[in-house]
Amino acid sequence: MEKTRRRDFLKAGVGAVAAMGSPWPLATCRGSAQAPRPQINAQVAAMRGDNLDAMTRDAIDALGGIHTVVNKGDTVFIKPNFVTIPWAKDNKCFGAGECTKSEIIIAVMEECLKAGAAEVIVGEGSHLPKCDWQYAVTLDGNTNLVEAAKRLSSKYDGKATLACLETDSPAWVEVPSKTPLNKIAISSLVANADKVISIPVAKTHSWAQLTLAAKNFVGVTPMSRYAQLIANTWWNRGTFDHSSPKAIAQVYLDIVKGKRVDLSIIDFSICMEGDGPSRGNGGRTMNMKERLGSRAVIASTDIMAADATAARIMSHDTKKVKQLTMGFEMGLGEIREQAIEVLGEKLDNLRVDWKPARMKGHMV
Predict the structure, then answer these.
(1) What integer pLDDT is reported at residue 35 of this predicted model?
(2) In sequence order, what DSSP letters do the residues of 130-192 get, joined into one string?
(3) How many separate domains does the chain show?
(4) Is residue 216 part of a domain?
C-alpha cells in the first residue's frame, strides 16, 4: 500500500474507532443491552512492511504526528538499546537482533528536527565507557549514525548529537527510588532534556523477562557508580539488584517515574528470543520477516501501553510479566488490552511464537 493511502486509512480508522469507543448499548436478540465498551486510555500505532524508515514515520503520523510530542526549540534525548555496540565493528549486533536498527533512529531524529527541535541527542551507556558510532550501520550498509548526524545537522536548523553517556554526560542527576539505594543517578543529558524518546528492539531477557521501552533506561546510569568489571573486559551494572525480575524492574521503573518518557517506538524487525539480551547470554536471533512474513514497528506516547502491546506480540502473558504489572500499579501507563486502542495493523495479525527467557535470578 502506498504511504499516502496508508496514512489516509489510518486517519479514517482512528475516527471510526473513536466513534466506537463511546459508551452505547447494543441491543441483543433478546432485547437486553450489552455492557458499554471499556474506556480507551492509550493508543499504540502498529505498522507492518519492509521499509523501517517509512514504517517508523507512519507510526508517528498515526499518533498525530511528531508535532504532538516535540515543540520548536526542544532538546530531545533518544535512547536506543545498543547493548553490544562497543563491539559492533566485529559482532554484527544489528543483524543479530541485539541492537535497535539505525534506520528507525535516523527517521526519528529527522522527524524531531523537522518539528524544530534545537538538538536531538542519541545516547547510550552500554557496557564500555566509549563506543564508535560509525559502526551503528543501517541494515543495507548505506549509512551509519555518524554520517546521518552530520547530514541532518547540515539540513536543519537544529543539530544531531551522538553521546556515549559515561564520558559525554556533563553531570549525573539523582531521581528517587524505592530500592534500597533510595536514589538512582541518571545522565544529565536525559534529566535535562525537554523530551525523551525510547527506541528499543524487542528482546527477551534472562533477568527481566523482557527488555523493551522501560527496561531500556538502565543504560542511562553511570558505570562509575553502579558497574563492576567482568572478566577484565567489560562492565556490568551489578550494584543493581538482579535477583528477580521484580527487583531489577524497580530500578528502571523508578527512572521512568522520575523522568517522563514522551514517546516509545519498538523495533520488531530482527529481534532476540530465548535467553537474551544478547547471544553471549544464550539469546537467539529472531527475524520477524521469517516468523511473521514482514517487519513491524509499534509506537505509543504511553510507555506501558507500548511495552504491554509488545509483550502480546511476543506471546507473553502480561499478567505474568512483573515489570508490566508493577508499572501499571505505579501509575506509569496502561497495560490492559481492552483499554489500549491499536491503530494501523491489528494486534492479532502481529502475534508470533516467541521463545521466553529462562530466569537466571543472579548476575554473571
Answers:
(1) 58
(2) ---GGG-B-TTSS-BHHHHHHHHHHHSSSEEEEEEHHHH-S-EEEEE-SSTTSEEEEEHHHHT
(3) 1
(4) yes
